[in-house]
Amino acid sequence: MSGAAAGGGSSCLGAAAAASCSSAGGSYAAAAGGGAGVAGRLPGRVLEHIFSYLDMADLMRCSLVCWHWNNILADENSEVWRSLSTRTLSEEALRSDILCNLPTYKGKLKSFQHALSSHDCSRNVYVKKNGFTLHRNPIAQSTDGARGKIGFSEGRHAWEIWWEGPLGTVAVIGIATKRAQMQCQGYVALLGSDDQSWGWNLVDNNLLHNGEVNGNFPQCNNAPKYQIGERIRVILDMDDKTLAFERGFEFLGVAFRGLPKACLFPAVSAVYGNTEVTMVYLGKPLDG
Predict the structure, then answer these.
(1) 129: how many CB neighbours lie within 10 A of its CB?
(2) What CATH number does the domain containing 219 carry?
(3) Which of 153, 204, 208, 244 has the fewest beta carbons closer than 10 A?
(4) 102 contacts 280 by C-beta, under 8 angstroms
(5) What is the dihedral of CA 224, 212, 150, 260, to 10 degrees?
(6) Is residue 78 part of a domain?
(7) Rounded to an integer, what distance in angstroms lies between the CA atom of residue 99 and that of residue 129?
(8) Record's Gene Ontology CC terms (predicted)?
(9) Taking the CB of residue 282, how many other CB atoms lie within 10 A of it?
(10) Is residue 288 one of the residues assigned to a domain?
């Protein structure tokens, strides 16, 4: 069999597996004993090869079909996830240190799914080809922001944000609802300017919400100023309704409490021309 024929056959098998997992996903209990028909009895290496042709959504459905399929997909650094990563992520993202705190291919893919959105942002910014870095165009008298692709209404979530250019007079990180505006005139703290967003201005260390300053953060004497390139970890706990921050593995404390029962998105806002901000979703925060 030629290489082309082999590839075509594998693609057909991949499509069949996707169709099988779509129909079998809803009957997990029935399938749990052995799998989805003939496909469920295939050797692990064969299934892994077939799975390597599927996209993220199909793979997640496949993991629910039976214990055999779930076990194969449990290895987050397997050929399945490596193959999908090389097809989905940019070479820059895979080769640079952007994703250095994500040790698995599946983790890198999930981070890309949660990255800053190129469709939910100010018209004066864009997401670079690496898929994770926001670039602000040099537009005068404008404050520009962006939301993450996915918001959260439950669970605990962590992500890293860092500036790769000057902060200017205002540089805010935090969270926002879908209703919060992502662009306004002038140079202002866009995140925290209304009741739909909560932000920490890295320039003056002020906490902002509903157009008001909610105190300084972190609450210590002579708090150090943010240094360009320094990674800040944001921790959103939708169970306790809190937003907290870490810097250099040092827990800085809870910045906001009493968050609403709503879908909240990671968000940033910037004012400096040609500055860049990178956000990397990490998943569930590690305790301790």
Answers:
(1) 11
(2) 2.60.120.920
(3) 153
(4) yes
(5) 120
(6) yes
(7) 15
(8) SCF ubiquitin ligase complex; synapse
(9) 20
(10) no
**pLDDT band for position 12 (50/70/90)?**
very low
Q: Is the confidence at residue 29, as pLDDT, over 80?
A: no
Q: Do 155 and 256 belong to one domain?
A: yes
| pTM as predicted | 0.85
Determine which of 25-34, 131-140, 255-264 has the lowest per-residue pLDDT on average.
Answer: 25-34
Query: First-to-last CA distance in the chain?
Result: 55
Distances (CA, A) of 61 to 22, 69, 73: 6, 10, 11
Number of domains in the chain: 2
- Compute φ and ψ for 266, nearest 5 degrees: -55, 145
Q: Are strands 142-148 and 183-185 parallel, antiparallel or unpaired?
A: antiparallel
Q: What is the pLDDT of residue 252?
A: 96
DSSP SS3 for 188: coil
Q: What domain range includes position 240? A: 95-283
- The two tokens of residue 57 are 């959504």
Gap between the Cα atoms of 59 and 84, Å rounded: 10
CA distance 143 to 39: 54
Asked if residue 183 lies in contact with residue 270, where contact means CB atoms within 8 angstroms, the answer is no
CA 226 remoteness from chain centre: 22
Smallest CA-to-CA distance from 247 within 209, 219, 218 is with: 218
Give the separation between CA 199 and CA 182, rounded to whole angstroms: 13
Average pLDDT over residues 51-71: 93
Residue located via tokens 């505006």: 181
HEC sequence for 42-88: CCHHHHHHHHCCCCHHHHHHHCCCCHHHHHHHCCCCCHHHHHHHHHH
Cβ atoms < 10 Å from Cβ of 111: 24
Contact 65, 34 (CB under 8 A): no
Q: Which structure tokens are listed for 232?
A: 């800040």
The tokens describing 6, both together, are: 């082999």
